């Protein structure tokens, strides 16, 4: 079977790096959506709570219920609005705002330039009227950087628009709310953090998305992936392996199959550019739904120890590699 190791020490190291940026653990909201980016929401949530983090971010109400006992303050990014004392819902449109039940605690999202979700600046005044008239609780105002990890002007453009939103809200008499726009990319680039909290996702899990021009913040990968052997056989030179026989042995060799495949969330890839394991061995032939083949007869192999490296090979991002890992794969915490 396949299993995942969650490195507790690396996670704590990463959270410490973020805390140095924010100046306080109280300003960190850990993003646990989509099974904590594939790492395991329950296990990551407990480590984060023991570290001192009291705020979390999830995708929907169902995810929030999984961690409600661990955190005092949970931001819910979407789904059905079900009022609850610990939950504050991101509101992404005027339509969603008008449908909020009375007493719902919300984070009003502003479109500062990503043009994905949120109300525009010209809608803020009307939004505040709706909030007051419908007895909705405005807990915070948020936005999201589109490219904080890249060198360019968009970060500054969005941040300037976020400041404009603050000015509008102040002119309307809105006070005692929190403001947050920074994600992992945002917090890793700033030297003087001034917001009320940062929503940290991929950075907590050890993937540094930043362009090389920025000051390097050392983050350590939290997830590593392992697979156990199913069977071993001897191949003669010229024998072919797997579906389509796309690998042909060029010598007499020993090969083994291991219980991992695209059914577990591992990438199928391209046999013309086979994935290389940390030990230097390459996957032989096609990745099957539940199996891969490797040279040798080790009882267990490390498939991946750094999602950044795997993502580079497959031409994708580390988020996709970790989030794809099936929830049924066992997660084991190691120090």
From TrEMBL:
**What name does UniProt use for this protein?**
Alanine racemase
> Which EC numbers characterise this protein's activity in its record?
5.1.1.1
Which is one GO molecular function term here?
alanine racemase activity
Q: Which NCBIfam families match?
A: alr, PRK00053.2-2
Q: Which InterPro entries match?
A: Ala_racemase, Ala_racemase/Decarboxylase_C, Ala_racemase_C, Ala_racemase_N, PLP-binding_barrel
Claim: Aminoacyl-tRNA synthetase is one of the keywords in the record: no
| CDD domains documented for this protein | PLPDE_III_AR
Cellular component GO terms, alphabetical = cytosol
Q: Which family does it belong to?
A: Belongs to the alanine racemase family.
Q: Which residues form the Alanine racemase C-terminal domain?
A: 222-334
Q: Please write the reaction equations for the catalytic activity of this protein.
A: L-alanine = D-alanine
Q: Name one Pfam family in it.
A: Ala_racemase_C
Q: What does this protein do?
A: Catalyzes the interconversion of L-alanine and D-alanine. May also act on other amino acids.
Q: Which residues carry this modification: N6-(pyridoxal phosphate)lysine?
A: 33
The alphabetical list of record keywords is: Isomerase, Pyridoxal phosphate
Specify the pathway: Amino-acid biosynthesis; D-alanine biosynthesis; D-alanine from L-alanine: step 1/1
* Coiled-coil residue spans: none
């Amino acid at each position: 079977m396949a299993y995942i190791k969650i490195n507790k020490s690396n996670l704590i190291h990463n959270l410490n790096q973020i805390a140095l940026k924010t100046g306080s653990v109280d300003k960190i909201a850990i993003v646990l959506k989509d099974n904590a980016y594939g790492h395991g929401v329950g296990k990551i949530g407990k480590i984060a709570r023991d570290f001192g983090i009291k705020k979390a971010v999830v995708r929907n109400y169902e995810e929030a219920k999984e961690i409600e006992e661990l955190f005092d303050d949970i931001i819910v990014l979407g789904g059905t609005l079900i009022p609850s004392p610990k939950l504050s819902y991101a509101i992404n449109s005027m339509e969603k705002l008008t449908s909020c039940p009375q007493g719902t605690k919300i984070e009003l999202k502003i479109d500062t330039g990503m043009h994905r979700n949120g109300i525009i600046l010209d809608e803020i005044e009307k939004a505040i009227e709706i909030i007051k008239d419908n007895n909705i609780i405005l807990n915070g105002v948020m936005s999201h950087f589109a490219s904080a990890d890249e060198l360019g002007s968009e970060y500054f453009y969005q941040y300037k628009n976020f400041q404009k939103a603050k000015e509008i809200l102040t002119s309307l008499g809105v006070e005692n709310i929190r403001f947050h726009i920074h994600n992992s990319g945002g917090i890793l680039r700033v030297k003087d953090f001034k917001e009320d909290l940062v929503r940290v996702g991929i950075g907590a899990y050890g993937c540094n998305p930043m362009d090389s021009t920025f000051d390097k913040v050392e983050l350590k990968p939290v997830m590593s992936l392992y697979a156990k052997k199913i069977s071993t056989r001897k191949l003669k030179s010229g024998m072919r392996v797997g579906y389509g026989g796309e690998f042909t042995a060029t010598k007499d060799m020993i090969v083994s199959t291991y219980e991992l495949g695209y059914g577990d969330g591992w990438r199928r890839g391209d046999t013309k550019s086979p994935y290389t394991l940390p030990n230097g061995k390459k996957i032989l032939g096609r990745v099957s739904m539940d199996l891969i083949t490797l040279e040798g007869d080790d009882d267990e192999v490390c498939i991946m120890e750094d999602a950044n490296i795997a993502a580079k090979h497959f031409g994708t991002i580390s988020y996709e590699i970790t989030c794809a890992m099936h929830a049924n794969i066992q997660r084991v915490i190691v120090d």
